[in-house]
Amino acid sequence: MLEALNPQPQDKILQLLAMFREDKRAGKIDLGVGVYKDATGLTPVMRAVKAAEKKLWESETTKTYTALAGEPAYNTAMQGLILGEGYADRAASISTPGGTGALRQALELIRLARPQAKIWLSAPTWPNHPSIVKFLGLPMAEYRYFDVEGSGLDFAGLIEDLGRVAEGDVVLLHGCCHNPTGANPTPAQWDEIIAVLKAKKAMPLVDLAYQGFGDGLDADAEATRKVAAAFPEVLIAASCSKNFGIYRERTGILIALTSPERKAVVQANLNFLNRQNYSFPPDHGARLVTMILEDPALRAEWVVELEETRLNMLNLRVQLAEELRKATNSDRFDFVAHHRGMFSRLGLSEAQVNRLREENAIYMVGDSRINIAGLNRETVPLLAKAIAAVL
Ligand code: LMR
Rounded to two decimals, what is the model's pTM? Predict the structure, then answer.
């Protein structure tokens, strides 16, 4: 039977990660996969996570199954982190294996409810978005997002394309820190996006994978909160991988906002989807997150470290923009300082990206997306010089 299988396309980001690991050159620089690294190149276990793990080890008395939706306390704490107060009567949710699990469950929920719904994705977007949509056989369309020339948002193109969305279609929005471009709408632009989508009676699906990595925990949730307040129904797929640094624990959440009357049936469908796909969601990471969010001291410690992480990336952005100014004698790359989150798309050709890898052991995704956190104060000037050399 298995002879009928065809090879699958490799995920470009994960392929790059494997290539980097195999590269034996000293001083190689990994700007590929979206994982935070400190100045020494380490992806640290955050202090609050370590403290919560210790506490959990001492206090945990059983590993029996939790609930199908995950622990209620986790769902409540995460709803609070993302949305703030006031959604208890409208929010159904499930704990999921990471943000990818949340997206997958969101798309499966859409397929159950309205299989003909077209899923609109930004062009470009995280490559796994179209991959999962395609895999589930859902119709897909793209809206313009990025102005390649100016390396900023193509807002006119975006609004024009969202004007073509049909009633009942789903529009996937990056809640903050757009992946891969790093370019994000301003609050006023978000208002306009919301107005267009409301007029079209579309359903927003917000992917919130980087809360706390852009402008701060609350600022990064601002757009998601506006969307939540504006629409009767919203899906939010969020990840704890980055902001809690618990990548391999696979911790995420899918929140479905609906009317209080429909909440029970939506929740039943979410539970059903968990049961069909993996029964109970992973618990360890979710439990750590709950402990941190519920304990004022742990929470404060986490917020401090997350803020250090965010500011480190911002400082690297400013330094890189300055070094690129010097190295290229132009303001072509000034946008790097204005983008937010882990990523920026530099606007280099694939051939230039390949040269950087082959000649300088600098690894970035083929579309010239860099992970800012892969840099440190010493490697920023090296990258700037190498880029100037391939231009
Ligand atoms: C990325 O975009 O690099 C991250 O979201 C990691 C991944 O799974 O692709």
Answer: 0.97
